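Subject: mismatched residue count in predicted assembly?

I count 302 residues in my input, but I want to confirm that the predicted structure covers every chain. Input:
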Amino acid sequence: MSATTAATSSSTRLASGLRLVVARLARRMRQQQSIGSTDDMTVARYAALAAIERMQPVTLGSLAAAEHVQPPSMTRIIDRLEAMGLATRTIDTNDRRVVRIGITPEGGRVLAEVRTTGDAFLAKRIARLNAEERALLARALPLLERIVADR
Amino acid sequence: MSATTAATSSSTRLASGLRLVVARLARRMRQQQSIGSTDDMTVARYAALAAIERMQPVTLGSLAAAEHVQPPSMTRIIDRLEAMGLATRTIDTNDRRVVRIGITPEGGRVLAEVRTTGDAFLAKRIARLNAEERALLARALPLLERIVADR
DNA sequence: TATTGTTATACTCTATAACTATA
DNA sequence: TATAGTTATAGAGTATAACAATA
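Triage response: the counts match. Full output below for your records.
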């Protein structure tokens, strides 16, 4: 078996297992509903808010592209984050079609709180692993990030 | 810092990273829509079909419990799998309230095909990792399964 | 005309509540 | 009465299509 064939075979097996576990994890996370202490903070909104903090001041379009959702979907997410007082819309002075999205101090506070408080479900389950297993998971996380990354 | 505190701190950091990457992975997987060559084979249906193969002949109720969805949701999933010719409903002869779910030969074939063909998105991305990284991912997968497991 | 974002609308997935059939 | 599953209905999330405002 060539190296390429072996890589393909182990990749498909891994993909199969990963798909199942990710689907279940995502479903469980969604069922936890509001993450952190803030009500209405869903996974999608948390992910968008984290992206805003990282990319601000960012246009709605590039935020949608970064999060792989369509612009109308991001409009909805921002509507809610804005209503919650966590994000801001500002019309670009150079090009008045463009909306710049920013994070409010409250948004930053909520983000930090969610990060430290963590998701009860995930953090509790992870805490049950031993130190070695957590270290392994910490090393695997960047790999997952590369798998989901663009390009 | 006590061992417990260290475990908690690393767990919350890990949970935070894991949540973001799982949310993105799940969204990308959902966008791929039909996995494998079969149309309408969504992630939820694939997960249910895999569970049926593992547990058959299984009642609708225990299947719902195993997949952490409510019975009405599982009813819908089975409706579709049955219409696709991949799963069967059989009324239990001992207790006519109970429905036993089974997998058809076609269902088994589709499952095997999805497993070997794999999800184009995931398998292709995983194939880009080197052998060492794939080995690491393979070791991390059971940890994720334990995190999402019951109890 | 082309581009950015929003509004209108629809679909999928899942939930809760009410119901039917059976025990 | 209690239980297994289904039907009715609703809500969240996201998509496509059509539109408005601006370049």
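The mean pLDDT of chain A is 87. Marking this ticket as 'not a bug'.
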